[in-house]
Each structure stands twice: as structure tokens, then as C-alpha cells.
Specification:
The two termini are 27 Å apart. The protein is built from nine helices and no strands. The chain has one domain. The protein has 218 residues and is an all-alpha fold.
Length: 218
Amino acid sequence: MTLSRAFAAVRFLFGAVTLVAVGIQLGIHIGHGFSVLNFFSYFTNLSNIFAAVVLVVESVLTWRGKDLGPAWALLRCISVVCMALVGIVFSALLRDVDLGALLPWINTWLHYVMPVAIVADWLITPPRHAIPYKRVLIAIAFPLVYLAYSLIRGAAISWYAYPFLNPADGGYGAVLLTCLIIAVAFVAMTLLIMALGNWLGRRITGRPVAASVDGSRG
């Protein structure tokens, strides 16, 4: 087995375990009579599903020797940023929050293991195609849409996935400030992940520095 196939097998394993964990937790969620839409309104669940699908698809394509192009590099970058922020935000703001029916091992896997694994995978096997920094606007679309959805839906049904999005805990001023901080953190994290991926990828492929800036090569 080649090294690339070995990494592909590990990626598939992590992706599969994550999807199984989310599936188990969804079953528990439904069993307690909770809303399915609420379940899929948690950024943690969405990000883990997204990252798991990216891992599984990439593992299959890599195993078959397929070249993963620039668009895939950006998609993978977005999944890395999302998972990094899942780990950071949970550790900073949510680790003491009541997690209800969330199983301890699934909590550990989704909030700790996967964020570390996804970031480590990016650093160990960086993308072979450079990501132009101007693509940051595409990368931040997902969290911005998520925040807008959460605030609009929360106001309509009086339910929020996370306490820091609930205006009842400090008013809309506090919520907007939190959203601004999250947006800035997401942009900063995206640029950092892009920079690391481009730099590490350049060391592996030997592509020119200009490729990581304007995307015209590599």
C-alpha cells in the first residue's frame, strides 16, 4: 500500500466514524421527541457532516488516483476552517453548557477529535493546488449564511442553537457583537489556513510563490 493510499484509508475511517456518530446522535435526538430541523441547525453537526463527506470523497478519489483540482482545495479549506472554529468556539464558550442527550463519546469525537484530526490532515497533507486569497469571500459565505439563518429562524420560533445567539441573554447588541467577532475570526482563520496550505503545498510541489497569490498557476 502506498503512502497516499494509507492516508486515504485513514481519512475514510475518520469520515465514516463521524457520519456514524452523527447518525447515532440524530436517532437519540428523534427518540427524545426533539426537532430534526433543530438538530441540523447546530453548526457543529453541519460542520462535522461537511468535513466527513469531504474526507470520504477525497479518500475514494485519492485511492483511485484521481487528481483533486483547485476547487476541491478550496472546498477542503472551508471544511478545515469550520472544524477548527468548532473546536475553538466549543472550548471557549460552550464546554460548560448543558449538552442534554449528547453522548459523551460523541461529544468528544465531534468537538475535540475531529477538529484536531482535520487540521492535522491539512498540515500533514496540504493541497497540491494553490488557493488564491481572494477566494476568502467564497469561504466565509457558509458561516455568514448560517448566522443569518440562525438569527432569523430563532426570532421566528424562539429557539437558538447556541446561547450566544439568543438576544434574551444580553440583547441584540451583544448578539451582533458576537456575530461580528465570529465573522472576523472566521476570516482570519481562513486566511491562516490558506496561507499554511499554500506554503506547505509549495514546499511539496515546488510551485512558484505567485501561484498562491493570484491563482494563475498550480
